[in-house]
Amino acid sequence: MTADSPTFAPLPSRAVIAVSGPEWRAFLHNLLTQDVETIGEGKARFGGLLTPQGRLLYDLFVVGRADGVWLDVAAEHREAILQRLLMYRLRAKVEIAASDAAVSALFSADPQDATDPGAGAGEWVGDPRLPALGLRGYGAEGPVGARAGDEADYDAHRLALGVPGPADWGSDRTYPIEANFDLLAGIDFHKGCFVGQETTSRMKRRGTVKNRMLPLLFDGPAPPFGAEVLAGDLRAGEVLSGAHGRAMALLRLDRIEGAELSVDGRAVRVQRPAWFEAALGQAAA
């Protein structure tokens, strides 16, 4: 193991649902924000299941397999997602069941490092949101030479890249575009209908999104969840999850540009990650 060895981190907050059967593609395609009709074996796509009003209920990764897909979901919501999928299934020829495959991540502190798990047990797929997030493993073992890490290490890596996570968007609390799903390959705007599609597409068509999740930088411990971000005397957003020196926040884009920001009397500053700026530019083109 060397200083630049990748980190292997089990993700116990995630769990797997197996979906198969002759009609699984059409079934999921009509529900999720992501195109699943063209997904191939060994590939992954990021997406969400929304409320009919377009709010984000659950995030998920769709992982292609020979006989269907695995859905990588928040463990605390797996039972609720199972019940919702069974409710939508009606008479579709689809099999839906919990899987015992454990979820893990393999990542490197160097975003230029092409993480390679090598040979070993389990299945690995590239994180479809951002290459620098590394790989996601299912029933996978830590590769030889990898550092042993945990979910806190992975969350610190994700936060350092400026990518929001489930603790930031919760369930039925925000819109997927506010959580940057459109910039992280989490919404396919060309696939046609899905639950919550009307509101999501309308936000996209308008071309102006008032609120986005972005990292805040500061000195010391993270402010409490929900703490108000101020631009002078104006409310500019709220703090979400965080750690020492850095937190995610849902911010009013029209109030943070060039403003002096504070939280609980402490100066904070916004970080706009390179991937965010690049994806925002592509979306506007």
Automatic annotation (TrEMBL):
Q: Does the keyword Membrane apply?
A: no
Q: Which residues form the CAF17 C-terminal domain?
A: 211-277
Q: Which domain of life is it from?
A: Bacteria
User: What are the alphabetically sorted keywords of the record?
Assistant: Transit peptide
Q: What biological process terms from GO does the record include? A: iron-sulfur cluster assembly
Which residues, if any, are the signal sequence? none
Q: Which InterPro entries match?
A: CAF17_C, TrmE/GcvT-like, YgfZ/GCV_T_CS, YgfZ/GcvT
Q: Which residues form a coiled coil?
A: none
Has the keyword Lipid metabolism been applied to this entry?
no
Which NCBIfam families would you find in this protein's record? ygfZ_signature (TIGR03317)
PANTHER family in the record, alphabetically?
A: TRANSFERASE CAF17, MITOCHONDRIAL-RELATED
Protein name as annotated:
Folate-binding protein
In which organism is this protein found? Phenylobacterium deserti
